[in-house]
Design a protein that fits this description.
The complex is a heterodimer of chains A (566) and B (205). In chain A, 33% of the residues lie in helices and 22% in strands. With 566 residues, chain A is an alpha+beta fold. Chain B has helices at 2-10, 13-24, 39-95, 97-106, 162-175, 180-185, 187-204, and strands at residues 117-118, 125-126. The longest helix of chain B is centred in the N-terminal third of the chain and has 57 residues, at 39-95.
């Protein structure tokens, strides 16, 4: 009798709808928790984290339960979490419009460090209030705030990368989340109960060639200069001459990667990589070193420089008023004479100059793994006129970004061998599937070692007191090679020169055995400015810091002191 | 060979056969009534059963205890991990170059303008040691931001007729702390002057 009752129940349980019962039983006791993969760190070349993920928590409220004591709870939360009292109060008192179901969930604070979050919630509970709890919320932390922010990028509140390296190398950094399912009774895991686990695969770290301290210093020096000149923006890049590794890539304006929303969106990319402009006189380094390489000139070549030079229907001037000058080639560089450069370049055919500039990487993009890199413009040689050749020879009529310019100048510093720049140590795969990094860097010879060395000697004149255009870019005791640049900026609307300037400075030291190459560009200083006066001091300070930090002593060789006049 | 041995065996065979026949003969097995008591056996079984149940219970309890302990240890480990990370974050904040730069500035430190080194092996000085001056300093903190627009009210311009009203205004300014009734009549003018002062202050910063 009893057995048949049991039998009937058995048929009911097992025969009629076993799956529903099994699911019900699982829902009672089985818990599935996501095991979030830890996002990889982004570190500088010394392993100092620039971006890291720490255990964070969000603090959420159940407004239905917090409303009666909202003021008291808000005071505790606002005090401990340094939040705005009224914002917290709003969250705690949130009410659904009439007729809608009650709101049971409101964010109070997100990405709070775990210890602070649990201590705060404990304080609220101890004070006798209910309805505040914590939930895990992985926290992406940028310990140095704005340092290298333009390179790193940032994540939105859902953890989706929106810019920079975080975006390009997301696949490497993100890893893969896992899950764990187990049985729970009274809050404790039941031993020998059901338990399945898919372990998470943590993201891999990304090491940059950036040196955080140099990056910080470069950013502060650049900011001081851009603000001092009331300029629109600026960029500074420092590179290891021998390896092409980027030690610092500073942009201003920049933003705090921990709070990207506080800055306008155009400030969150890297202008050094995305903005193109005419390089101005810094380009003369490429033109003259090509001329030396082709055997057309030497630093001692004598050039008669008239006060102005008509080319086709235009007249070319120098930035300073002068009568007829008798300058050597070295003097043309030291004094930054446009006319002298144009006259020397007349020994080249159009395609000869074009081929050299093409070999220097003008008009080619060097992928370092950042989104929105531009490639600049080197007009095709069949469109060139004599005027094009003339203006291109001193840096107008072609456009580059700051990284291309430093890469080209670095080829001169590195004995004539161009090294593709890199930002990533080793190698890593970008979102588009390309391998980038120091392991992928290539070298190719652009000019002879002899030509590069002569060019460096000519560039020393620029920073020499009493000779060159930028004596305040020199460092006492060191041989510093440099070149100023002042270019007219093409206006956004008219497609013509609108009167604003880009001032720049590029160079390397020690001139006879270069270790570091630095390039600085400051865009649209309000009251004009010169490459030597505005960008030169930024160059000197960054270079000075590098020489000091990496303990590069002076070479103790006599300076070039090439004659400027004849 | 068997034929050789057979005479010797022939003498023993009948004796063996007879005993086998003797043994093969069936007989009724006498009923043996077991006199062994049942109680000890039942007790033994019960004891084993009891011990099993108790053992299982204890084992289970032990496992549960272990689970509780594991949970509490796990919670502690989580808390400690979180604490370690918080401390790590604090350490990162202290190591932040910005923090160090500001601290250095407060001590009056300036980055030198010219690198110079002492070669420890030879005691030789490399480079030209030059003292750093104030001009070598860089600004490490951002420029102060202007006041947000709600705190920068438009100046309230109060047009006053030249000589007589101006005199009253200046007088009210000095009298305000003492004569409350008098001040209330002139609040408009007083506030106007404050409003005009605020943006000027903002611009000065």
């Amino acid at each position: 009798m009893v057995l048949s009752l049991f039998g009937a129940r058995l048929i009911q349980l097992q025969g009629l709808d076993p799956k529903a019962y099994a699911a019900k039983a699982n829902a009672e006791s089985l818990v599935t928790v996501p095991l979030p993969a830890t996002r990889g760190q982004i570190t500088d070349r010394n392993g100092v984290p620039l971006a890291e993920t720490v255990a964070g928590m969000m603090i959420v409220a159940d407004p239905l339960r917090t409303r009666p004591h909202a003021e008291d709870i808000a005071r505790i939360l606002a005090d401990r979490l340094h939040l705005d009292y009224f914002d917290v109060l709003d969250g705690l008192m949130r009410q659904a419009p009439p007729g809608k179901p009650d709101i049971r969930f409101a964010y109070i604070a997100r990405r709070v460090p775990a210890t602070l979050a649990t201590a705060t919630v404990a304080a609220v509970t101890n004070a006798g209030f209910q309805g505040i709890e914590t939930r895990p919320d992985p926290l992406r932390n940028y310990p140095a705030h704005d340092v290298a922010a333009n390179l790193l990028g940032f994540l939105n509140s859902d953890g989706v990368p929106l810019a920079g390296l975080e975006q390009t190398f997301n696949r490497r950094l993100a890893g893969k989340d896992g899950t764990e399912t187990y049985e729970v009774g009274g809050g404790n895991r039941i031993p020998l109960g059901e338990n399945t686990e898919t372990p998470p695969v943590n993201g891999r770290n990304l090491t940059l060639t950036i040196d955080r301290d140099v990056q910080f210093y470069a950013q502060r020096v650049l900011r001081t200069a851009v603000q001092g000149a009331n300029a629109q923006s600026g960029a500074a890049i420092a590179m290891d001459t021998r390896t092409g590794e980027i030690l610092a890539l500073a942009d201003y304006p920049t933003y705090d990667a921990n709070d990207p929303g506080a800055s306008p969106s155009n400030d969150r990319g890297s202008r050094a990589l995305s903005d193109v402009y005419e390089p101005g006189s810094v380009e003369k380094v490429l033109t003259t070193s090509s001329l030396i390489d082709a055997g057309k000139v030497t630093p001692m070549t004598r050039i008669r420089v008239p006060s102005q030079l008509p080319v086709l229907n235009h007249t070319i001037h120098d930035y300073f008023q002068h009568g007829n000058l008798r300058l050597t080639m070295a003097g043309v560089i030291a004094k930054s004479s446009n006319i002298g450069t144009v006259l020397a370049t007349r020994q080249f055919t159009h395609s000869q100059l074009w081929n050299y500039l093409d070999a220097f990487g003008i008009g080619h993009s060097a992928d370092i793994g950042m989104p929105n890199q531009t490639r600049g413009v080197l007009p095709p040689v069949d469109t060139w006129s004599d005027l094009t050749q003339a203006t291109v020879s001193f840096g107008q009529g072609l456009s580059v970004n700051a990284l291309q310019m430093i890469t080209a100048v670095n080829a001169v510093a590195n004995g004539g061998e161009l090294i593709t720049p890199s930002l990533i140590m080793g190698s890593a795969t970008t979102a588009s599937g390309d391998l980038v990094g120091t392991a992928q860097a290539t070298r190719r010879r652009v000019i002879s070692a002899q030509a590069a060395s002569l060019e460096a000697r000519m560039m020393e004149g620029v920073t020499t007191q009493g000779l060159g255009t930028a004596p305040n870019a020199g460092i006492a005791g060191y041989r510093v090679a440099g070149k100023t640049g002042t270019a007219q900026e093409v206006g956004a609307t008219c497609g013509c020169y609108d009167g604003s300037l880009d001032v720049s400075f590029s160079g390397f030291a020690p001139a006879d055995n270069p270790r570091f190459t630095v390039y600085v560009v400051i865009k649209k200083p309000l009251h004009g400015g010169t490459g030597g006066g505005t960008a030169g001091p930024v160059f000197r300070k960054i270079l000075n810091y590098l020489l000091q930090k990496y303990s590069v002593p002076p070479t103790d060789t006599p300076p070039a002191n090439l004659p400027v006049f004849w | 060979m068997s034929s050789l041995l057979s005479p010797a065996r022939g003498t023993r065979l009948p004796r063996t056969a007879s005993s086998a026949v003797e043994r093969a003969r069936l007989a009724l097995v006498p009923v043996r009534v077991s006199r062994a008591p049942r109680a000890p056996f039942a007790a033994l079984v019960l004891a084993i059963l009891g011990a099993g149940v108790v053992g299982l219970l204890m084992f289970n309890t032990h496992m549960q205890q272990g689970a509780f302990y594991a949970t509490s240890l796990q919670n502690r480990a989580d808390a400690l991990t979180a604490r370690e990370q918080s401390l790590q974050m604090q350490l990162d904040q202290l190591r932040d170059p910005q923090h160090l730069a500001v601290a250095g500035r407060q001590l009056g430190m300036v980055a030198p303008a010219t690198p110079a080194f002492v070669d420890l092996a030879t005691g030789k000085i490399l480079g030209k040691p030059t003292p750093a001056g104030p001009a070598d300093g860089i600004r490490v903190t951002p420029l102060p931001a202007g006041l947000p627009s709600p705190l920068r009210p438009k100046p309230i311009i109060v047009r006053v007729l030249a000589p007589t009203t101006a005199a009253t205004t200046t007088q009210t300014g000095t009298h305000t702390p003492t004569g409350t009734g008098h001040a209330s009549t002139n609040t408009g003018t007083t506030r106007g002057r404050n409003g005009a002062a605020t943006p000027a202050h903002g611009a000065h910063r």
